[in-house]
Design brief:
Distance between the termini: 91 Å
CATH class of the largest domain: Alpha Beta
Number of strands: 10
Radius of gyration: 40 Å
EC number: 6.1.1.20
Strand content: 15-25%
Strand order of the largest sheet: 1-5-6-10-9-8-7
Structural class: alpha+beta
Protein name: Phenylalanine--tRNA ligase alpha subunit
Number of domains: 2
Main location: cytoplasm
CATH superfamily of the largest domain: Bira Bifunctional Protein, Domain 2
CATH architecture of the largest domain: 2-Layer Sandwich
Number of helices: 11
Order of helices and strands: HHHHHEEHEEHEEHEEEHEHH
Shape: elongated
Organism: Nosocomiicoccus massiliensis
GO biological process, one term: phenylalanyl-tRNA aminoacylation
């Protein structure tokens, strides 16, 4: 046993890593280890010496076990120290700069418009992009035989389900939910879809923001005043607006709204196509049929509605010549608008 102890200590001094220590444990304390096999000699020991022999073997085993455990702790501490030295972090060094995205130019326009109308007491509603034929057309005074449906060539999913062609279904749902009781003041931003050939000015997917006000004694003057305030807030206080007669199935009367060109001041330029005016949105007084279908008494309640395209506004403001740039996720294009919000640009000068 003394020879075994001396041999272990010699090998232990030379052990430099965890593997060598584990090999020593197997060599001396394993099932076929040197110390374990000593117990096989128990049968050859006289009975009066067996107790002392067993105690000596156990003492040898415990001594070797303690040294191995101590050696493993020292090795692990040494490895940890070396690892900490190699992985030391200098906290005074500047951090790595990670690329940070920015707000999409189209979203920046939408947020600016929402800020204005929320300040006027409007609520923001978002509806379903997959809509029923009833809310997309019939509840808006467009029955199945109405020729105006041809103006909005649609993506149908089934005979009664389609991708919405405008955000007006949100207005129809809000009107129905009101159960004939006003007032209602909402704007409805969101994506819409129409069968259209994509080119520089058209897209099969684009964005709309529509507004609706329903209450007692609402007139065309309220509509004009609201749009004049909004457009001056967006394009500048020196802008003028004009209303031209138009036609929409869900409003009567209907108007197209133009704003004097913010680039040339109405003198004529390439932005306004030398006319001095830029067409911005469509609007009108809510058709009595739409109010009646939603449960409102059209002799008591009236309202106005308007709809605009943030895409067109974004193209005008930023000089974007192709609407497809707004939807193709080209980082070279989007990174140009990265710091718009950080520079403190508000809706007064989007």
């Amino acid at each position: 046993m003394q020879a075994i102890k001396e041999k272990f200590e010699s090998l232990f001094e030379d052990a430099a890593d965890r593997k060598q220590l584990d090999d020593l444990r197997v060599k001396f304390l394993g099932k076929k280890g040197t110390v374990t096999t000593l117990m096989q000699h128990m049968k050859d020991i006289p009975n009066e010496e067996k107790k002392e022999f067993g105690q000596s073997v156990n003492a040898l085993r415990q001594s070797i076990q303690q040294k191995l455990e101590q050696g493993i702790e020292e090795v692990e501490a040494r490895l940890l120290k070396k690892k900490l030295e190699n992985e030391t972090i200098d906290v005074t060094l500047p951090g790595r700069q990670r690329p940070i995205g920015g707000k999409h130019p189209l979203q920046h326009i939408i947020d600016g418009i929402e800020d204005i109308f929320v300040g006027l007491g409007y609520e923001v509603y978002e509806g379903y992009e997959v809509e029923s034929d009833y809310y997309n057309f019939e509840a808006l005074n467009l029955p199945k035989s109405h020729p105006a449906r041809d103006m909005q060539d649609s993506f149908y999913i089934s005979n009664e389900t389609l991708l919405r062609t405008h955000t007006s279904p949100v207005q129809a749902r809000v009107l129905n939910a009101a159960k004939g009781k006003g007032p209602i003041k909402i704007i409805c931003p969101g994506k819409v879809y129409r069968r259209d050939s994509d080119d520089a000015t058209h897209s099969h997917q684009f964005t709309q923001i529509e507004g609706l006000v329903v209450d007692k004694n609402i007139s065309l003057a309220d509509l004009k005043g609201t749009l004049e305030l909004f457009l001056k807030e967006i394009f500048g206080q020196d802008r003028e607006i004009r209303l031209r007669p138009s036609y929409f199935p869900f409003t009567e009367p209907s108007v197209e709204v133009d704003v004097s060109c913010f680039k040339c001041g109405g003198k004529g330029c390439n932005v306004c196509k030398q006319s001095g005016w830029i067409e911005i949105l469509g609007a009108g007084m809510v058709h009595p049929n739409v109010l009646e279908m939603a449960g409102f008494d059209s002799s008591e309640y009236s309202g106005f509605a308007f709809g605009m395209g943030p895409d067109r506004m974004a193209m005008l403001y930023y000089g974007v010549e192709d609407i497809r740039h707004l939807y193709t996720n080209d980082l070279r294009f989007l990174e140009q608008f990265k710091y718009i919000e950080e520079r403190g640009v508000k809706h007064e000068s989007i």
